[in-house]
């Protein structure tokens, strides 16, 4: 039996072998091991440490943009943190209550004549609070992966504010002259206020937890059943993945009622799954069961849904049990897939011989994502204040992680060194029960490499024999695409990394015959791979030499990335099936949203002869990854993963809408050619800071709050019922 | 739905400027984007990020008759899964360049199927060019020039072998296409409306709504 690890921390000396990775539990942290951290950030410049300026250019919505009713803001109580920034949820509630007509079009009120003067102050206050909390810090220091990021001070309209310490509430100067609650409230200030409020972790982001209304479900949740219903027979008998559960369960979902409970016991995870996280006190009670509960239900069955399902089917195809399959991973097999060609024996703990000779002596290598308190002593390179990091650590140290709290905390960004663990927890890859975590992880890695042993025959030549004729097309395509994955990142060009990526994409393809490999999925694998690898080697993976990374770490990264990619795509499968109906539906929804948000913009785009699918297809297919640098993508994924597995369908839609609205003014001034060229390579790819991304996410949050449960307010809904 | 004025827009002065919509088709990784990038920006990347959906570029060429032709280039994604998007791009096109990789016979087979599809479904007067890319890999050639040339002649296609990497014949492809398009009846070639969204937008309703505000 596996002894219960003392902590979630599982740093191993690099000398330990792949066998320890696969077969063992965590030894205690050596007290003398220095924590590995990303290289210290450059010292902030004098000017940026005393004051900062932020781009507010995207706040300049012209008349006709979405405005909230001024009265609603006046009636808005201050935020719970007393910062003077309205609680977004209250704001929304008041808006609906005080809306003159009680119908949605009142959102399109023209701004009051005296609004403009007040607006920058409101924006500045909110933005400042946001920035003070962490983002400016992040932008100033350069984020972990910020090789392409820039300073945030690029805006045309800037608001200067006095510098305060991280985590401070909104600076008084901006709100003193005219209290926020008395100025006409512009939509443009709202996202920042949301972000600022959300920064204060006691503020309830209630609307994020709302259960989708039934109408919303009809519009937004129909993807999964469609996949299940229309899915063609699978060659290997793998059943369809249904991670996107469109119906929130009203109970918390004990594991005994889970559809895959039997499978869970098969992988030894059931006891972890039965322990649902207690509801966070900050989560409002809901009679119908909240979105949080939905998350909890899914999350309490960490390794339950899709991939285990698929594995079960794959096993049964071969007429052997899961356990027997896992046990078939012998040292001999390991030698075939381990990137370094090592064949560690099971249970071989601490075999220093397996360490490549070039490896520097005994840095601590954490294979579980570096949940280490000691790391807090070094300055954060990710702009996350120490106090927030402590909250993460506190949550992660609990015997059973409260996922609801972890989601709330993660929405605003996750510390670099904790990201791997938090992502894996929130995606349901790791059980919330700490005692079972390591065993579950090892089990999943064994499962993955059992599949590799079955389906992958490693020939390193690009045009050699393919593992099977039926999947040779997919493998051919994967091998064409892997070297082309973001060619700007040298790490991706390393043969060791490329083989690893090929394997995991190929195994994913084998297990998802309805979609198979589709170009763009390779992009989606990379954030996982980079985050996990960075975490396991304790430094930014972009700077590492793969030849010097221990084979067991690469193997762990590969397996964990595979599973998390599977989880991510399971909520989004019909985006990649024949005809890509999921993407087409998303693009249509985006268009509906834009019609509602800014009919002028929509008309301009259409009149110029541009169909939304011509630019938005890629946004949906690659989750805006081609429009962001890797560091910003990873930050976005913090929020996506906190939103839930289906965020790449639901929340992403609103991010895309906010993204397009961000460039509204530029687009309106351009013709067909200008728009197409601009929108294919928007400034976000090269110029956006973390602040820009977080404002985008905040704007998306507001849009989701307004529209997600109200599909009939969108164009198609209005068209259906508007003439009555 | 209001549409752009025809993409054929003949500019004010003496009908010397023409604008055409061109679509690049072909199997994955044959070098469609590389040809386009070489033609448009004169650049080449050994590893070009895969195209998702389609990419848009413009570039002009001078024809021997003194006219200037500006191409609106739609560079499509090559993977079979994206096939369903292709009609949106070739439907309103005046010309198509079907690309294959001379060092990979399977891409030539796929190019033939693209040609068949264009002949069946594209505008009847579309100009089709067949381009064999990766001429720099002629040492590992799998498709002979004679074979491809014969196929092109048989199907009345323009034919050029080129290399985006070495810039051999890249501009020639587009120049040949530009000169092959009959300038006189250009304006009737393809209305813009065909390549915009098939979705109907009820502008009247939207106008009504805005009056409420």
Automatic annotation (TrEMBL), chain A:
Keywords: GTPase activation. Residues 32-45 have a biased composition (Pro residues). InterPro entries: Rab-GAP-TBC_dom, Rab-GAP_TBC_sf. Residues 239-258, 268-283 have a biased composition (Polar residues). Residues 26-96, 150-177, 224-289, 340-386 are annotated as: Disordered. Residues 46-56, 150-163, 228-237 have a biased composition (Low complexity). Residues 413-644 form the Rab-GAP TBC domain. One of its GO terms (molecular function) is GTPase activator activity. One of its GO terms (cellular component) is Golgi apparatus. This is Rab-GAP TBC domain-containing protein. It comes from Fonticula alba (Slime mold).
From TrEMBL, chain B:
SUPFAM superfamilies: P-loop containing nucleoside triphosphate hydrolases. GO terms for molecular function: GTP binding; GTPase activity. SMART domains: RAB, RAN, RAS, RHO. Residues 185-213 are annotated as: Disordered. The keyword Oxidoreductase does not apply. Residues 191-201 have a biased composition (Polar residues). Keywords: Nucleotide-binding. PANTHER family: PTHR47978. This is Ras-like protein Rab-5A, variant. It comes from Fonticula alba.
